[in-house]
Each structure stands twice: as C-alpha cells, then as structure tokens.
Amino acid sequence: MLYYPVFLDLKDKPCLMVGGGVVAERKTLSLLKAGAKVDLVGARVTKALEGLAGKGIISVQKRPYRKGDVKGHFLVIAATGSKKANERVYQEAQGEGVLVNVVDDPERCSFIVPSVVDRGSLLIAISTSGKSPYLARVLREELEGCIGEEFAAFVEILGAARKKLLKTGLSHDKKERIIRDLVKSPLPGLIKEGQVREINSVLKGLLGEGYSLSKLGVGLKREKRISK
Q1: Residue 61: closest CA among 78, 39, 31, 46
Q2: Which of 101, 136, 142, 161 could bond to 115 as cystine, CB 3.0-4.6 Å?
Q3: For residue 3, what are the contacts with CB-CB under 8 A and spacing of at least 6?
Q4: Cα end-to-end distance, the chain, whole Å
Q5: What is the side-by-side order of every strand in the sheet holding 99-102?
Q6: Are 69 and 94 contained in the same domain?
Q7: Does any domain span residue 85?
Q8: Which secondary structure element, helix H or strand E, spans residue 16, and what is its range?
Q9: What are the pLDDT digits (tens) for 12-23?
C-alpha cells in the first residue's frame, strides 16, 4: 500500500486513546506534545497516565471500550492489546469517518505513525509503510546521531530571521541568498558549543546590525562561558 505523507495539526483537537498500557502511554504523550486534547478509555492504566489524569491533563475512564466512545473525536488510536477490541474500535471509527490507527496492524489503519527524528520544529518522519518498523527505527537512530539537539535552536533562528527578512525591502533573490548562506553557515556547531558571541557575530555578518539571538527572540538551552 502507498501512503500520502502528511503532518496533522492536532492543537485542541479531541483525540481518543483506547487502552492504558505502556504503548498507550507513549502514544498519549505524543498526542499531548502535538497539543491534542486526549480522552482515554482503558480497563487498566499506567501510573503515569493516572498522574496525567490527576493533574487534569487528560481525561480517563477506567473501563473497557464501549460503542459510541469514538463519536466527537477527530482521531482515535487503539492500543488495547486485544485484536477483538481493536477491531471494534476500528469498525466504529470507519463508520463515523474518524481517523483511526490500530497499533501494529497497518491493515486496520486510516493512517500510520512514522518513526520520527524530533528536533523541535524540525521533524523528520521515516516510514516503511508498515513493512519493517525495525528498519525505520534503525534509520531514525542513525539520523539522530547526525542531526543533534542543536538543530532545534538552529531552526528557530532560521524561522525568526526569515520572518524579519520578509518585512524588509530586499529583493526575493537577495533574501533567498541570505537564507541559503545562513543554512550553510557554521551556526549548528556554534549552537552545540553554546558560543553566543560567535553566533551573534555570524548573524551580524550575514544579516546586519539588527540581528542577534536576543533580537530574534531565540535562547539556547546551554550556553558556554567564553573567557575574555
């Protein structure tokens, strides 16, 4: 089967998680990171999920899945560990026109979840169309070794710089050349080392006086002190 790759906007969207084990926990955390509002139904739930419910972050109903639970949701994930229960969820979701993913069962999915390299706004999705999740994981781990955490801040810098550049009177070609030079600059390495002064020097050299980390509103998680 061929899939159409797409990223979903789940901010404030009601999503249903059916199941309360460790897989459901992991999937729930991913949904929350995307800004979804998560309702969970499961006869048993992990302590972490109970903790989230106790803080009002998710809603939990500690019971088996019931017909009608799917209604009103934008997306549903079935992670019960029971083929029979997952099949019920899948059939009802199909009937209601709700996006559904049955964990480890690509044939009963209207969408599949790729292996993802997560670097903040930079997301790199890897999929084998369900044929070899292990290969997708290996490829993800290799990419994670090449694309470090510093790329999260790098992308924020690029985004903030682009936003400011779009408000200038520079020509399209000039703006494109500046962004290209930024992308090819040594900024990722400098970010990794926390070299704030050097980062600001690169920004000033490529963009001008009005550009620095503080003026772009970008902070670094770890800043390395530089001796004078």
Answers
A1: 39
A2: 136
A3: 111, 112, 127, 129
A4: 60
A5: 59-61, 37-41, 14-18, 75-78, 99-102
A6: yes
A7: yes
A8: strand 14-18
A9: 999 999 999 999
Residue type, 208: G
**131 and 106 together in one domain:** no
Collapsing DSSP to helix, strand or coil, 75 comes out as: strand
18 sits in which H/E element: strand 14-18
CATH number at residue 143: 3.30.160.110
Q: Note whether 102 and 127 are same-domain residues.
A: no
Range of the domain at 137: 115-147
Is residue 156 a contact partner of residue 218, using CB atoms and an 8 Å limit?
Answer: yes
Q: What is the pTM of this model?
A: 0.84
| Whole-number Å distance between alpha carbons of 97 and 138 | 34
pLDDT tens, position by position, 137-147: 999 999 999 99
User: Is residue 96 located within the same domain as residue 139?
Assistant: no
166, containing H or E segment: helix 150-166
Give the CB-side neighbour count of residue 95, counting CA atoms within 13 A.
11
Question: What are the distances in angstroms from CA 32 to CA 52, 57, 74, 217?
Answer: 10, 9, 14, 25
Strands (E), 42-168: 59-61, 75-78, 99-102, 115-119, 122-126
